[in-house]
Amino acid sequence: MGDEAVQLTNDDAASCKRFAVQQGYWSDPYIQYLIKAGDRKAPEINRGYYARTHGVKLLLEEFLRKTEMKCQVVSFGAGFDTLFWRLKDENLLPQCYVELDFRAVTSRKCYYIKSRRQLTDPILETCNGDKTKLVIEDATLHTPRYHIMPADLRDLEEVQSRLTQAGIDYNVPTVFIAECVLVYLSTQKSSDLLKMITESFNSAFFINYEQVNMTNKFGQVMLENLRGRHCQLLGVEACTSLDTQKERFTSVGWEGADAMDMMSVYHSLPPADVHRIERLEFLDELELLQQLFHHYCISWAYKDKDNLGLSSIGFH
Fold it and tell me: What are phi and psi of 230, to 5 degrees?
């Protein structure tokens, strides 16, 4: 598997998100400064990204509110994600926000941030306008609250070193986010990463968006399509079922885990907004959307040594 092929999945995801935003599925004034407008995307793709973006954010916001933002966020394989800026706009910024990704991705993101005031200015506002507190060098960005750094998630020493550089405190509740990231690591490597987190942090929460039900016919077609783009899903074993998604956490020491396919997540989102977005575009391939929703899921896990009530976070 080429790392370059995996890095290109970032551009695909960012391009899909930008198109969905243009169509009015959700508001994101920042994505346009990180990725050029691309080709038109099918309505089922737009709805899929809507469910993904809102599902992840719903769990994250629950964690942020439960900890009263006295917490840390670590985003693995963050790519061109704009969550930091959007949380700032909503007054939901944690004490520390860290993004780790391949150097080829973080260097481009840092370059775009440095050269576009629409991205730089909001970051400076979190430093009280003190330009000396924003340091962008090569593939890294550091402020007192926001850090973008290159790291290979297969290398635990490097990951831990980056978290230390960012000033991550293992005693502060921390939420980890991974969207279609763990599946590109071998099952052993992702297990090692998840084990390191639960052994190091007092209280932690993990939000994982990924494939599921990959052993059936539709799942096999998805695998073949990715292989055709030189993307090998080395960790696909954990994507067999919702149970295997939960077990990947509980088998390495997380207190509890849960998982829902995207069809269930979609039906758990605020009904008024779902009704609004369903009127944006005509969808004649409802069956295809349902198939896609049944082959992606959000799983989440917790370790709650501080008794914060993390086990109650979920889709209600």
Answer: 65, 25
Question: Over the Cα atoms of the chain, what is R_g?
Answer: 19
Q: Supply the pTM of this predicted model.
A: 0.97
CA 314 to chain centre: 16
Question: Contact 142/168 with Cβ under 8 angstroms?
Answer: no
Burial (CB < 10 A; 0-12, 13-18, 19+), residue 39, is exposed
Read off the tokens for 250.
């509980």
pLDDT value, residue 9: 84
The full DSSP string for 56-124 is HHHHHHHHHHHTTT-SEEEEET-TT--HHHHHHHTT---SEEEEEE-HHHHHHHHHHHHH-HHHHHHHH
Instruction: List phi, psi (to 5°) of 127.
Output: -110, 20
Task: Name the β-bridge partners of 112.
Answer: none
Mutual orientation of helices 3-22 and 103-115 as an angle, nearest 10°? 40
Would you list the DSSP string of 221-286?
HHHHHHHHTT---TTGGGGS-HHHHHHHHHTTT-SEEEEEEHHHHHHHS-HHHHHHHHTTS--S-H
Work out the pLDDT band at 2, boundaries 50, 70, 90.
Answer: low
Order across the sheet with 296-304: list the strands: 135-137, 140-142, 146-150, 96-101, 72-76, 174-179, 203-211, 296-304, 256-261
| Beta carbons of 122 and 146 less than 8 angstroms apart | no
Query: Is residue 229 scored above 90 in pLDDT?
Result: no
Alpha carbon distances (Å) from 61 to 184, 250, 257:
26, 23, 18
Gap between the Cα atoms of 45 and 19, Å rounded: 10
Name 303's bridge partners.
204
Cα–Cα distances in angstroms (integers) from residue 186 to residues 209, 236, 244, in the given order: 17, 8, 15
Contact predicate 136/110, CB 8 Å: yes
